[in-house]
Request: fold
Amino acid sequence: MIQGGCLCKSVSFKIYKETRKAVICHCTMCQKSNGEFSSYTKAKLNNFKLTKKSSLKWYHSSKKYRRGFCFKCGSSLFFQKIEDPIDIAISTGSLKKNISTVGHIFYHNKKSIIDIGSKLKKFQKSSNGYFDNMLEKIK
Ligand SMILES: [Zn+2]
Reply:
């Protein structure tokens, strides 16, 4: 099991069994929401449990997707399909354990002058699920 949560500990959660390896997203929305890029893992909802959610808020950042954050401390935590979600993307910075990183998406928007994981697989736009089966087993 991996535990995670926000900076002020008002939102916390657990991931069980397995989770997708981390993918760095450079899209312009992640740039605004997460600093300069995001790093998300993705867990199936039946492997994910919110244990504290009193200050969790959702912002509908586009028609189909929403972003979860803590309204007390401002931590950006989740990214999820609004209708019939089967999984939830979780900011890897919120986790107590390290998840290995496998690639980049929306690389054409990349801003940073620092090359992080520049040898990893890159997609200029969406990966269309390319990374979805790259799972990290959780003990
Ligand atoms: Zn918080």
The pocket of zinc ion is lined by residues 6-8, 10-11, 55, 70, 72-73, 75 (CB under 6 Å). The two ends are 6 Å apart (CA to CA).
